[in-house]
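Troubleshooting: if your tokenizer reports a length mismatch, compare your output against this known-good record of 193 residues.
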Amino acid sequence: MKPSLLLYIHGFNSSPLSHKANVMKEYCAQHRPDIKVVVPQLPCFPQQASELLLELVHQYQDDYHIGLVGSSLGGYMSMWLNGKFGFKAVLVNPAVKPYELLLDYLGEQENLYTHERYTLEAHHVDELRSLDTPYLVNPADFWLLQQTEDEILDYRQAVAKFALAKQTIEEGGDHSFIDFERYPKQIIEFLSL
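Known-good structure output:
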């Protein structure tokens, strides 16, 4: 049986230093040191980010059983990887239609963690749209963790998209997903890692 690998995919203008990424890393270090945890710093632009994710999958898929955790835009990228490879995924307040949302973010950007400055242009939104997963091949591959007071995304889009998947919808909260610390053990179990 292959050893397990958790691929955590962070969101827009985030990094491996995000709180949820650290919660997963710390949980695995303390309770499941047998799981390899990979949290890449994704490039700012969708095509480059997708290429890096494909490189990582190709690097590890022969030797590891891979499970995904995707937050916000990382949830969107996790849907895309599931469509290509069938990996199970836990999506935390995922972006369902980020190509619509990011139209409001065109222009100068700064990553809050890395302080990298870059310019988001219309063709980058097109790159994002090209990664869209119009329907889920196997809804049972997904677990949606969603809080209703997400100030960035309309939580109802995710609830509708994952209607046939496992869902945990919590009243209140915010886009960061408050008290995420409650879930690592269940996430690892769902991903069969």
